[in-house]
Structures are given as C-alpha cells and as structure tokens.
Amino acid sequence: MSVIELYENLAPHTTPASNPRASFAGCLVRTAGHDFMDFRMHPDNTTTGGMDACINFNDPDNAGLKECLQATNV
Questions:
Q1: CA–CA gap between residue 5 and residue 23 (Å, rounded)
Q2: For the chain, which residues make up each domain, given as ranges?
Q3: Cα–Cα distance between 54 and 31 in angstroms, integer?
Q4: DSSP string of 1-68, one letter each residue
Q5: 48 - beta bridge partners?
Q6: Which of 45, 51, 56, 72 has the highest local Cβ count within 10 Å?
Q7: Integer Cα distance of 56 and 47 in angstroms
C-alpha cells in the first residue's frame, strides 16, 4: 500500500483530541528527520549515518518512531 493510500484510508474526521491524518503526516516528517539526523562525524574523520532510508529503532534518540509508524497501519 502506498503512503497516499495509507493517508487516505485514515479517518478524515477530527475532534479536539484526535486527528489521524495529521498524526500520520507528523509521524512521516519525524521519521524522515530522524533518518538524516543520525549523521555522525567521528574523531578519525570517518562518518556514519545520514540520509540512508534506515532507522535504528533501538537508538534511544528514535524512541517512539516504531510505535508511531505501526499506529498508522490500517
């Protein structure tokens, strides 16, 4: 299922306490941000991480991303 299909399958109705489509969009933005923010420059001038489409769900900096993505499954 595509990202657009996932988005469109979420309830379009909102309440003051719930907006499934906005939550999904926020989750995607946060996931993308955490993908590129894991770039590290090491003392030996080597680098790791960066925009590679991989998220380490075991990294404490990424806490909650896995649950956020799973919550959007329909």
A1: 15
A2: 20-48+55-69
A3: 10
A4: --HHHHHHHS----BTTB-HHHHHHHHHHHHHHHHHTT-EE-TTS-EE-SSSS---TTSGGGTTHHHH
A5: 40
A6: 72
A7: 16
